[in-house]
Amino acid sequence: MTSEKPTMIEMRDVHKYYGDYHALRGINGTIRAGEFFSLLGPSGCGKTTLLRTIAGFEDISGGMIMIDGKNMAGVPANVRPTNMVFQSYAIFPHLTVAQNVGFGLRRDPRPKAEKQREVDEALEMVGLKGYGNRAAHALSGGQRQRVALARALILKPKVLLLDEPLSALDKKMREQMQMELIKLQRQVGITFILVTHDQEEALVMSDRIAVMFEGGIAQLADPETLYRRPNSRQVADFIGTMNFMPAKIVAETGDLVEVDSQGFGHVTLQGSQCMGTPGSNGSSIGFRPETLTILFENQQAVDRESMATVEEVVYYGDMTYYDVRIDGMTSPVRISMRNVFGRPVLDIGNRARVAWSPGALVLFR
Amino acid sequence: MKRSPILGAYAVAYLLFLYGPILILPLFAFNDSRIVAFPLSGFTTQWFGEMWADANLRKALGNSLIIALSTATISTALGIFAARSSVRYRWPGKAVVMGMIMVPLVLPEMIVAMALLVVLLTIGVPLSIFTIILGHVLICMPFAVAILTSAFQSLDKSLEEAALDLGETQISTFQLIVLPLVMPGILSAFLITFTISIDEFIIANFLGKGDPILSVYIFGQFRFPAKVPSMLALGTLLVLFSICMLAIAEYFRRRGIAKTGGKDSGGFL
């Protein structure tokens, strides 16, 4: 579906040095027109630096960035077809809300009334109708963010850059703004690039995500692929929770890999479940907590079934997390279960039947 | 918490010692007697009239205003360059250069004045109001730079980037965003350097050619007992003026902090 969209940004072997510090180490990737793209990673991974090189606030030390088919080398920020929503929002404190939103139209030769109408429309779009004459420094955090959005979108950029725009908001407000941003992006159809360290936020909002570690992109994929088929233990660990068990590759025949692992015994995996390069030592299998199910009473496993002992119970209301040790494993694994009315929550020490499927396992080698 | 009454008494005594003499100034400026002594003998505004009738004093005031306005303008303008460059840019030897600018703050003014005098005479610069301005700029720069540095520091860098991002150039960004937001700091620096310059004595005395300068003139007039009351009247006005200037400077400084959404981190008042 998304693959038909044309390319908006192309990054080829982008490097950035700050003195001796190698902040971006050969970034390659394509961002498509009209997609909601996220740069996700821990602090210091280079995601903000990459965003700032796209915006034109930082020069790149090597490689090339193309926006809409044009090489951006030597093109300053003020003439790039990008606009930015800053982490601090950067609302001009000495101007009114309307003056802030209309700031980018200052050099626009159109008559004042027309520009005023555009400012009003932009304010209405972000839900701040009638706020035009307010002093900018008197706004709340959420309102500042909306002003910053309206101010950036009024220039109808090809790409909107968002630098951790939700990190300063409280949880409720953040979730509300996530939904509003998704809606807004669909409405205006502009390419959004979001920088975030919050994996949940990235999964919820993005069409595609680039996971970054130490100045490089570790994996670039849609949210579902990232979650179900992370291409390294590092990515798997950063996005959601994943259990890891040491495993030994017994045989590789064509697209099938036979693996021996604690608890699960001998399983055969498809090539698409196997990450990393064949032949390397020290492999492990990973699986998400919700891919295992505790069977109650006369429930039957669809695929495989093992016996396990409950070692820890964490009750979250709608969910219960169990740490169980499957017979034959040296350490417990985490299983998440949705709580269902009428079903008991197990206690520590209980024996339980656990259903699992080889198809949900991922091999990291 | 229980506090010793001695501490309270100490605080009161301290403040009295500090500000008591200044309070005496207006008291005797309005006292109907040429002799500065208690008991007070009656109310008069005669000394203010006498003061204003003194042509030399008016000349001294004029010279001092020229010096103070020039000093404030030059040191504020130079301070803007120094503060902006120290806050925003990195260049070799910055710490040393910025340190050198601040040094006159801790150097004895007497030493500065003597050194300047020797140098000026050696290289053959004639003493004038201009040389006094030169000395005053030197001792005022640390204050201007300190105030302006804090003003530039409280300016969020992303505000400038946002203006660039929205299509402005470096120069128009400076005009539209940076200047308006640091303006309170600029005004504050101007007023404080003006105040420092107008009542400065040592440099005015060493580097002047003999033109009457307010501080030097006042010192000279104190030799004549008959002139003392009118000098007290002048002093009263100067105290009032200084308080006003500092209050205005502080008002602008705080308004600047409030506007940029920062927290007050102390100041001169």
- The CATH class of chain B turns out to be Mainly Alpha
Under the CATH scheme, the architecture of the largest domain in chain A is 3-Layer(aba) Sandwich
Write down how many β-strands of chain B occur, each being a DSSP E stretch of 2 or more residues: 0
As for the number of domains of chain B, it is: 1
DSSP strand (E) fraction of chain B? under 5%
Overall CATH architecture of chain B: Orthogonal Bundle
Assigned CATH class of the largest domain in chain A? Alpha Beta
pLDDT below 50 for ≥5 consecutive residues: which ranges of chain B? 263-269
Structural class of chain A: alpha+beta
Taken in chain order, the helices and strands of chain B follow as: HHHHHHHHHHH
Mean pLDDT of chain B: 87
Helix content of chain B: over 70%
Which two chains touch over the largest interface? A-B, 24 and 19 residues
**H/E topology pattern of chain A:** EEEHEEEHHHEHEHEEHHEEEEEEEEEEE
Instruction: Figure out the total of helices of chain A.
Output: 8
Total strands of chain A? 21
What is the CA-based Rg of chain A, rounded?
A: 25 Å
H/I helix tally of chain B? 11
- Sheet with the most strands of chain B? none
CATH topology of the largest domain in chain A: Rossmann fold
